Amino acid sequence: MIFVMQRRAIFLWYNKNMQTDLEQAKTFFQSDWVITAITVIAIIAATALVSVLVTKFLKRVLMREDSLLSSSSIFVNIARAVVWIVGLSIILDSCFGVNASAIIAALGVGGIALSLGLQDTIANLVGGLQVSLTKLVQPGDKIRVGADEGTVTDITWRHVTLQNENNEEVIIPNAVVNKTSFVKLS
Predict the structure, then answer these.
(1) 3-state class of 161 per DSSP?
(2) Which residues are bridge partners to 142 per DSSP?
(3) Residues linked to residue 172 through DSSP beta bridges, in sequence order
(4) Which of 10, 97, 101, 128 gives 174 a disulfide partner, CB atoms 3.0 to 4.6 angstroms apart?
(5) Contact (Cβ atoms closer than 8 angstroms) between residue 70 and residue 62
C-alpha cells in the first residue's frame, strides 16, 4: 500500500513537472525571435534547394548538343546569384520588415558610382556574356589570343581559361578576348 502511494506521488510530481516543462517549451517556441529564426532557416533551405535545382537544370540544358547557349559556367553562376539575391530579399522583407525594393532603388543610384570603380570587372562580365552568347568561343575550342594558345576549358564571369600544350592553365580576361583579335585554330 505504501509502495502504491509512493508510486502515485511520484507520478503526480512527474506529471506536474512535465506540464510545467511543456508550458515553458510552448512559451519558448511562441517567442518572436524563435519564429523569425525558424522562418529564416526555412527560407535559406528552400533557397539552397532551388539554387541546386536551377544549377543542375542549367548544366543539363547547356550540355545538350542543340543548346543555343554555350556550356560555359557564366550562365550557371549568374542564375545561382539571382536565386540567392531573391532568397535574401524574401528574408529581409518577410522576417525583418526591410523593403527590398527600396534597397534595390538605392543600389541603382549607388551603382553608378560603383560602376566607375569597377570598370574592369564590369568589362570582363559584359565581355564574358558577349563571348558566351555569340558563341565566339566555347569550351573545347582551340584559340590563340596574342602569344597565348590553348584549348578553352571554361568561360567564367571574369576570364577565359585555356589549357596549353604544356598542360599549363592560362587565364585571359574576357575584356582582352573581347577587345583583341584572336584566332580559332582547327
Answers:
(1) strand
(2) 151, 185
(3) 160
(4) 128
(5) yes
Residue 57 grid coordinates: 537544370
Dihedral, 110, 113, 119, 125 alpha carbons, nearest 10: 10
pLDDT band with cut points at 50, 70 and 90 for residue 115: confident
Q: Are 74 and 129 in contact (CB under 8 A)?
A: yes
> Among residues 159, 135, 139, which one has the least CA distance to residue 151?
139
- What is the three-state SS of 42-69? HHHHHHHHHHHHHHHHHHHHHHCCCCCC
Category of 43 on φ-ψ map: left (φ > 0), alpha (ψ -120 to 50) or beta: alpha
Q: Rounded CA gap, 10 and 127, in Å?
A: 76
Question: Grid coordinates standing for 22?
Answer: 511543456
DSSP β-bridge partners for residue 54? none
Nearest Cα neighbor of 126 from 179, 85, 164, 167 is 179
Predicted confidence band at 74 (pLDDT cuts at 50, 70, 90)? confident
